[in-house]
Design brief:
Order of helices and strands: HHHHHHH
Number of strands: 0
Largest sheet: none
Helix content: 55-70%
Distance between the termini: 21 Å
Radius of gyration: 22 Å
Number of helices: 7
Structural class: mainly alpha
Strand content: under 5%
Length: about 220
Amino acid sequence: MFKPIRMSMQTRMNWLIDLAVFLGGVLAGLSGIYFLFLPSGGYQGGRNPMYGVTVLFERHTWSSAHTWGGVLMVAAVVIHFVIHWDWVKRMSRRTWSAVMRKDGPLSRGAQINVAIDLLIAASFLVCAVSGLYFLFAPSGGAHGGLSGATEPAFLFSRTTWDLIHTWSGTILAVAAVLHFAIHWRWIKNVSVRFFLSLRPAPQAQSELAVGKVAPSR
């Protein structure tokens, strides 16, 4: 008799949240690359060769993808932290104790993981905060002098916020790719098991038997 591939509800929920983070990150990342290489500079009397250039979608569509991809990623990360807050606190204490050599030094691999995770956390926080600035203080220009102000500013100028958002997003993307590469085998195994758990038991077990996914522990 074939036994179904089982996966706990908590693991399913974690996988779906991680998927939301991934999809939001992809949307925000690809649209961010678009804006990085095709910045808005206006017509400039015909001197801007990139004015009106369309890559797959119109500029406003890329803008919407960047905004809502970022919102999806931030919302999923917040949910992830709320659900796993106790685990985050425990791991933070254990990592701090290891760094301070109270529980012995970290291995080389663990040090790299901690460094990348800290880089992801810091760059994500900065990128999210700067993204919220642009979400709630969109650029509207002076509207021919009718608005009474040119650009909303908070703490920094809009140009500075743009630089902060661009470079924190770049660092976040690089660190996330490294994190993804380091944990690729685990990500692949859990993802395959997620989909196998949705299939009929005979088909799932046959694919498990030929070594398409590591057995559960």
